[in-house]
Design a protein that fits this description.
The chain has a domain at 4-107 and 141-161 and 287-395: Isopropylmalate Dehydrogenase, CATH 3.40.718. 43% of the residues lie in helices and 15% in strands. The chain has twelve helices and ten strands. It has helices at residues 14-32, 46-52, 60-66, 91-100, 147-157, 186-207, 223-237, 249-258, 270-280, 321-338, 341-359, 374-393; strands spanning 4-11, 37-41, 70-75, 105-111, 134-140, 212-217, 243-248, 265-268, 291-295, 300-304. A ten-stranded mixed sheet has the order 2-1-3-10-9-4-5-8-6-7, sandwiched between helices. Strand 9 (291-295) and strand 10 form a beta hairpin. The structure holds 3-isopropylmalic acid and manganese (II) ion (MN). 3-isopropylmalic acid (IPM) binds at residues 76-77, 94, 274, 305, 307.
């Protein structure tokens, strides 16, 4: 069996520390299962830019495009690391890849594990219905309010000329105006909304429970959202086996906090998805628990949602679970796309290890009320995986 080609992009700050834990766990799977990985690590991000004057080495975009079955990213973003035009340094990596590899669906599960305290009321799920928080947010990832920055970053990543920042005069406004157009296209909306319905059907089969897709937008105010909503209505008619809900983003934020049990799969335009997923993370124990997959027709990139947390960088204290859960999603997606039963078993084992770790009161980092280090949690998960892998594959 050929090895999966993984490109690992540790990036900035704590991204490097959590990626080290991902590599620790991947090594355990490599050594104790039939799956193997051919790993290329590429430095990148705002810190790398401050040190070298470039966001990543030349040829990195092409490597991700042409020589990677999956990409694992730590975090991008560092205070004061800005390009001469003011854009964030490191954006080529995260935004250039999202746009350049057409990673149109940003899949962000929001699930509260038994044993993890809820961030708002602090109550553990042992005394709270464990089914209350189990949803997947699907954020459109290539257009909307991010469109012009995504395009600039894609051009840079491909070595093409930067388009100028659009600063214009607007009728009815005085003086200097900076604006970000928010285009929403039929094609872009169709592909992500179809993906959301397919995803709901997949969950329906897997969980044996009926699923709904909730469309979140601001179609009472913006034209782009009106198009998004009308395409949602069209596609929902083609999928009568899946239930639907609709909400405006403002009311949705309240609904999300108040009645998360109503939500299964949620589909949102880019910026609303960015904001709503950070908010939703409080339902699952915080950003240290929030994993994601950026999926396109050919490529996929996995990353924790939390960012580089400069305040905690270098201290070995942040929660590695969001990254390990992203590795779990990577195993699952690679197994699915390659019809690889062994890797699918590995995905199940990593999922079980994470769940049991919390259920059995395993060590946790400060954000979950513990005092364990990043590497202690990583090692604990790696040890659990190793034990299960030995039983599963009975390798020496
Ligand atoms: C995220 C991040 C990124 C985004 C930043 C780092 C550009 O916040 O993945 O949610 O805004 O999409
Ligand atoms: Mn974000």
């Amino acid at each position: 069996m050929t090895a999966y080609r993984l490109t690992v992009l540790p990036g900035d700050g704590t991204g490097r520390e959590v990626v080290a834990e991902a590599l620790r766990v991947i090594t355990v799977f490599e050594e104790n299962s039939p799956s193997s990985f051919d790993i290329t690590e590429i430095p990148c991000g705002g810190q790398y830019y401050l040190e070298t004057g470039e966001e990543w080495p030349a040829g990195s975009f092409e490597h991700c495009r042409d020589n990677s079955d999956a990409i694992l990213l730590g975090a991008i973003g560092w205070p004061d690391a800005r390009l001469p035009n003011g854009d964030m340094a490191g954006g080529q990596t995260i935004l250039g890849l999202r746009s350049g590899l057409k990673l149109f669906a940003n899949v962000r599960p929001v699930k509260l594990y038994r044993g993890v305290p809820h961030k708002v009321h602090g109550i553990h799920q042992q005394i709270w219905n464990p089914d209350l928080v189990d949803m997947v947010m699907i954020r459109e990832n290539t257009e909307g309010l991010y469109h012009s920055l995504l395009r600039r970053m894609e051009q840079k990543a491909k070595g093409e000329k930067d388009s100028p920042i659009i600063i214009d005069e607007f009728p009815g406004l005085d003086g200097e105006v900076a604006w970000d157009p928010r285009p929403i296209s039929r094609k872009g909306s169709e592909r992500v909304i179809k993906f959301a319905f397919d995803f709901a059907r997949h969950r329906q089969r897997k969980m044996g429970a009926p699923q709904t897709v909730t469309c979140v937008d601001k179609s009472n105010v913006t034209r782009g959202c009106r198009l998004f909503r009308s395409i949602f209505d069209e596609i929902s008619e083609e999928n009568p086996d899946i239930g639907t809900n609709k909400a405006y983003i403002d009311a949705f934020t309240m609904w999300l906090m108040r009645d998360p049990e109503d939500l299964d799969v949620v589909v949102l335009p880019n910026m609303f998805g960015d904001i709503a997923t950070d908010l939703a993370s409080v339902l699952q124990g915080g950003m240290g628990m929030a994993a994601s997959a950026n999926l396109g027709p050919k490529h996929m990139l996995f990353e924790p949602v939390h960012g580089s947390s400069p305040k905690y960088a270098g201290l070995n204290v942040v929660n590695p679970i969001a990254t390990l859960q992203s590795v779990q999603m990577m195993f699952e997606a690679l197994a699915y796309r390659n019809e690889d039963e062994n890797l699918d078993m590995c995905a199940d084992i990593l999922q079980t290890a994470i769940q049991q770790h919390f259920e059995e009161g395993g060590c946790v980092t400060y954000d979950l009320g513990g005092s364990a280090s990043t590497s202690e949690v990583g090692q604990a998960i790696a040890d659990r995986c190793e034990k299960m892998l030995r039983e599963q594959f009975a390798m020496a």
